[in-house]
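User: New here, please read:
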Amino acid sequence: MTDDEPVGIRAAGGVAWRPGARGVEVCLVHRPRYGDWSLPKGKLEPGEHPLLAAVREIAEESDVRAVPQVRLPTVRYRSEGRPKRVDYWSMRAVGEGGFQPGTEVDDIRWLPVDDAVRLVSYPHDAEVLRAFADLPEVTAVVALVRHAHAGRRGTWSGPDTGRPLDGTGRKQADALAPLVALVRPVRLLSASARRCVQTLDPAAALLDLPIEVVGDFDEPKPGQQPDECALAAAARLAELAGAGEPVAVCSQGKVLPGALERLAGRPGDWTTPKGGGWLLAFSADTLLAADRL
């Protein structure tokens, strides 16, 4: 299949990993219907975000609760005569509920990566596992989002910092909340604009966390240079990642591209639509990967 071939079946899964006696171990599942060993994955539900599906499928097939870190290679092949696309992420296992064999998956194994590569039944699973093995150590993840839709600046009569989300923006914020929750953040941080704080409100309610207002994520004030704001935001993101705990941050459209370019150390398309965002993976305070949400 090529990238321009129409997508028929959408699925998602991941390489769930945990520390083991011989180093990192990854989870494989055995499917009696096919008699194969594979990475846990499954089809997206209607309207479901692939990352939500990946975490859900890992939990359903292996009873492992996992936190996404880095996007891995996307696999494309044909299934039952239709094109199929499977998106994968590396996932740090944070809990196991006690696997019970079922009709879909009747066994799981935790293995060192080399052993898992030899056991999997399909070359594309081996390719995903090798890509996982090549990753540097991920020490922190950050969910970075831009505020949701808040109408037009010109139609708001008050101070721009007080402009609230509109109906579309509230729906976008509701949709972002479960994605933000996937990283299991211990802190929620927001630029001071009302629309930024409101974008994190549904996530705050879902996670039972307060929202901390941080001026380093604000857009430039009159007389302030955009580069100054981008540098401040990048520095604060690196500091948060260096602490080694997952966090979620909401900032603004004039800040995010410059901050991400500085963190990545390269130019690129860092534009972020309103209500969109990024899954950022760090090793200490160094950005390893940025995956669009």
